[in-house]
Structures are given as structure tokens and as C-alpha cells.
Automatic annotation (TrEMBL):
Superkingdom per UniProt: Bacteria
Free-text function comment from the UniProt entry: Ferredoxins are iron-sulfur proteins that transfer electrons in a wide variety of metabolic reactions.
Keyword Repeat: yes
Origin species: Pseudomonas paralactis
Domain 4Fe-4S ferredoxin-type: 1-30, 31-60
Stored PROSITE patterns: 4FE4S_FER_1, 4FE4S_FER_2
Record SUPFAM superfamilies: 4Fe-4S ferredoxins (SSF54862)
Protein name as annotated: Ferredoxin
One function term, GO molecular function aspect: 3 iron, 4 sulfur cluster binding
Cofactors, names only: [4Fe-4S] cluster; [3Fe-4S] cluster
Secretion signal span: none
Keyword Metal-binding: yes
Pfam families tied to this protein: DUF3470 (PF11953), Fer4 (PF00037)
Keywords for the protein's UniProt record, in alphabetical order: 3Fe-4S, 4Fe-4S, Electron transport, Iron, Iron-sulfur, Metal-binding, Repeat, Transport
Length: 107
């Protein structure tokens, strides 16, 4: 089991999640974070920390967001590790809650 970062992280990237992860299993792309499924210990600490409510347990990923499970697997292999909180994206407040941000995903 793992936790998964989903659509609403894109273009927000608040990074509060990184601060609480005991095993540093977040990986950072240009406008999105992912969780490495083999490193996540399923502690659930990050889920309530995300202001964008973008993190879900793998078995509770909302309908229509299933593709993010595979996306976390794939991108955690190629993006660098992030272990410290940083400023959110400049237009985070504006993008928070917008639907289908997957179209904005930069790799
Ligand atoms: Fe890290 Fe725990 Fe979140 Fe997994 S569930 S990403 S181990 S904080
Ligand atoms: Fe993204 Fe939420 Fe973390 S917006 S960077 S999953 S705190």
C-alpha cells in the first residue's frame, strides 16, 4: 500500500507534505510532486497536511483519478527527491481547486 499525489497538487505544489514524511519519499517535478510507492511506509501523516487535499491512500483515490497511481510510480523514478518544504507555486491560490490540471502537468 502507498499514498498517492493527485490532480490538485499540479500548479499548487504547497510542499507541506514533504515536511512530515518520515522516510523522505517525495519526488519533485516542475509543477507537481509524487510519492515513491516502494518507499512510502503508509503512515498517513502527509494526507491531512496537504492544503490542496491532493493526497489519498492508494485504495481511496477518487474516481477518475486512477491514472495518478501509475503516474506516481513512473515519475518517482525520474524526478529528484525533495526533503524540505519550499514556497508554493506563484499562482497556487488561483489554481487550487481547478479541475483537470493533469493537462498542465510538466515533466
Ligand atoms: Fe511519507 Fe507517510 Fe505520506 Fe507515505 S504516507 S508519503 S511515508 S508521509
Ligand atoms: Fe502537492 Fe499538497 Fe504536497 S499540493 S506538494 S501534495 S502539500
Amino acid at each position: 500500500m502507498t499514498f498517492v499525489v493527485t490532480d490538485n497538487c499540479i500548479k499548487c505544489k504547497y510542499t507541506d507534505c514533504v515536511e512530515v514524511c518520515p522516510v523522505d519519499c517525495f519526488y519533485e517535478g516542475p509543477n507537481f510532486l509524487v510519492i515513491h510507492p516502494d518507499e512510502c511506509i503508509d503512515c498517513a501523516l502527509c494526507e491531512p497536511e496537504c492544503p490542496a487535499v491532493a493526497i489519498f491512500s492508494e485504495d481511496e483515490v477518487p474516481a477518475g483519478m486512477e491514472q495518478f497511481i501509475q503516474l506516481n510510480v513512473e515519475l518517482a523514478e525520474v524526478w529528484p527527491n525533495i526533503t524540505e518544504r519550499k514556497d508554493p507555486m506563484p499562482d497556487a491560490a488561483e489554481w487550487d481547486g481547478k479541475p483537470n490540471k493533469i493537462e498542465q502537468l510538466e515533466r
